[in-house]
Amino acid sequence: DGLVRGNFVECTVINLLQASELCLSFIQDAMLQKQWKRAAEFLTFYVESLEKDFSREPVGASEIIWRIGSEILRHHPDSSVKEFNTFIEPMKTLSVKRYLKVCLEHAFYLLHNGLIDEAYQNLSLAESWRFGEQTVIQDKELKLIQAYMGLLDYYKWSKQKNILLEDGKCFYLSVEQEMHSCFRKAAVNLKEIIKIPGVWDQFVKCYVDMLEFYGDHNEARQVLNEYAYNPKFPANPNAHVYLYQFLKRHGESKKSLISVLKILHDIVPSHELMIDFNTMLQKSKKRKRRRLGLEVIFTALDYAGCKENVKAWSCLARQVKQIHLAWIKQEWNSRKDWWPAFHFSHYLAKKNWQENESLSYEKALVAGILLGRGNTKFSFLFTT
Amino acid sequence: MEEKEATRDFNERCAQCSEVNWGLTDGGRFYCRSCHNVTEKITEVENTDFTSNIRIQTVSKGLRKQEKTDGGCEWYVCEGFQFVLRKQAEALEALGVCPQMKDEVLWNFWRCYLQKTKQAYCDRPAGETVRPLSVCDSSTDVDSDPERLSLLYSSLSESEGDLQTDCSFVSSTSKVSESTSVRSRSGSVDGSLYLMKNPKEKLRMTMPMTLSFCYMALLWVRETMTLSELLRFVFEGHIPYLNVFQHFPEKMKLRGPDIKIFCVESWPSYEEVFNKMHELAAFLDLPRFPDITDSCFLHPDMLCMKYLMEANLPDEMHNWTCRVVKKTCIGEVDFLTLVPGNKSTRKVKYDVLAAAVIVVTTFCVLLISFTCSQPKMCMFYSDGPYFELKKWYKVLKCTLDVEQKKLDERRAKYLWRCEKPLFYSAKKKSKVLKRRQIVVNLQNQFGRLSGSVQPAEKPNPSSFQLSWSEENTDGSCFHGHSLKGILQEKRGLLTAMNPRYWLCTLKLCNEKLCGHLAHYGEADFPQSYHFVLRLFSFLLRIEPSYIHDEVCMIEHKLFNKKLRKKTKYKTGPRK
Fold first, then answer.
1. Do B411 and A14 touch (CB under 8 A)?
2. DSSP H stretches of helix in B159-206
3. Which listed site, A350, B84, B252, B416, has its alpha carbon 20 to 30 Å from A72?
4. What is the pLDDT of residue B287?
5. Which long-range contacts (CB under 8 A, 24 or more apart) does B55-58 make?
6. Which of residues 503 through 532 in chain B touch A, CB cutoff 8 A?
């Protein structure tokens, strides 16, 4: 029972600033407890601060009201899209520095509610906004707006593509033309955004999808290569996955596939593609590759994600049956202390047997080889 | 210009009553003193003796032309404050304060202030009619105006010796007026000049000072309202303060500097109002205030009774508080009565003093100690239940938490916005209006989403914030409880079970140097002490540290002899 309540000392003198902060703390409490009506009630009083908000504070009243108001309207049971739209328009004009950001968030809200066309309209309206220096300063938001427009154009294109494909041989010239125009619009924007170092998974996928459709494989490969290998971009396992999938689709050589998956193995050793990778490497004629395969599958099973993966275990089982004992020993050396407890405990043995017979079988095979037949843990399996 | 001089030569008989008894209105028209009939005859300013006077006249004539387009009139800042005081006094009267306070005491104090600060020497050619902008009843208006005029003229003649300085003041006024008239069409004549003045010089009037005036008047008539109550009524909206300027007469328009003067954005603090009141009393050269005797509401015995009731403490404790008061001599007339300008006596905060007495008594007599063994069962004897500290604490804590939360919510919800938007300049007008519209729309929208929430109603004005009824069956009222469980009979006298007492502090600080008598640190005192202070802090709406100061002061008076003996009284944490 201290004298300080929350972050507010029981102060007897109150001025406007303190009253606002107190009001804000009530709003925040209500929101954290999902009491939307109560939050709305206090917000009606907090908005008073708008009239005094001509300050240069980093987060002023107008921004707070925008964010809090949006949040309340997203969750309030009596709220609607109409309510939100009514609310958001003045928020856009309240601060010129935030104009594009508010527009973008508004578009997200509309997309979240499935209103694709409205979202598109909003985005294109925002895109055409010009305000002197501000347009330059808010360059990033503008690019994002364009990127999302590109995404929505892709969405339109995609719908039309489905129409086209559904009817098979039928030739709809108008649909094709419209499709192509969507493609052009989308391509421009998507190409721009993926130039900027960042994570643009969805945008890349969509762009590549369109390029493949129109047969521009070179451009597609270039885009994927850039996305995966440009050092300015953050390390992104998905980039390599996309590249791999593309190369596989186009029947690229095993060499190129392996080089891509090798990098993925380095970044995310537990990735599910590692199983495919192992299968590929096992079949190889080169010793080095087969050795790599063993390493890959062992490493994959080091992680909890693959513990109950039957395919992983069967791969491992297949390899250890055929492969050099020396190699197995090399891999097992660093694992013999903890793999038994991790994979081959009594408890797990029983559990696996009850839940998944094939898993149990594969594991038993591996265990038999790794732990030796004299091992009692799985011995009961061999007696059945 | 002397009124008598001006009317001397006018010997016509009054059209209504046939008397020859002429006076001058503000606008310089002749009116009959007997029947108050205003004529069309206007005086002419021919007298060139007072060159300063002419300057004022020409300046104000010029302004008047401009102002007519705005619909406003000329007004001075002190008139604005006069209006505020009038409204506050009316509100106080509505709360039950005696009319004498408003009609005589407050008005006299204000007049005295105007004289002392020489604000009442600028001529003011207002509207044609006699404007009742005085604090008095309207029935005495006509009389008061010539009074006021003579007041104005008398101070002019008084300052004949200082004509030089007065001239310079006037000329600077005219300069300012001209420049302000260019920028802001209306507003007060001396608004910007007012702000430019050195605030320490001559006790410049501010909004918090209006409350100092009120309190001073209340004290003079020894009303049953403490300063903390007054401030609470202000907060609750029963006494106009924050947006009172909105109710200025239509003609008194506010611009620029006026907004800074009259539009305040914070509640006044007890300390500020209190200190200013004392400064004011000294500045106005007031004599010794009417005595505060033991039959007065403000006497600690009386206030203790009230606060004991509110704090839900047993009535029996009153005997003990009286004993403490007597022993420390703080009930003496000379201690309690205000003598303005006397720097040697300590200024008395009646409400805080009474609260401190209760705190000291509580710790002395009841020795709040939650580790102290107390019977768990409530003991009922033929004369009623015994007072149990733990039970009291539970009830009070619960209530206090609820009330504090309500108070916090009310504070958070306070609508600072005034109905008429204010503009500092014409440029900002459109921006302000736009924002206003946005705010209104947002309030409508979220108001609907608030559900069926009742708008925060003004609580009814009440002297008591917490009330306890003995009729409650849940036994939450402790008034009738007996202290017998805590005190014990010793040779026929009731004394505390544990005769030791732990002092808050051994040595008092110098209040003038560091602002406090003692320092209230959280770590130094146990939760029980914090709680009791918190309770009174809530009731009086004052920081706990001020109550702590008074507690230390009383302790030192109480244990004066023992302290001087320097025996084994320890300081430090109480049990």
1. yes
2. 163-183, 191-196
3. B416
4. 92
5. B55/B170, B55/B171, B55/B174, B56/B122, B56/B123, B56/B170, B56/B173, B56/B174, B57/B123, B57/B125
6. 522, 527, 530-531
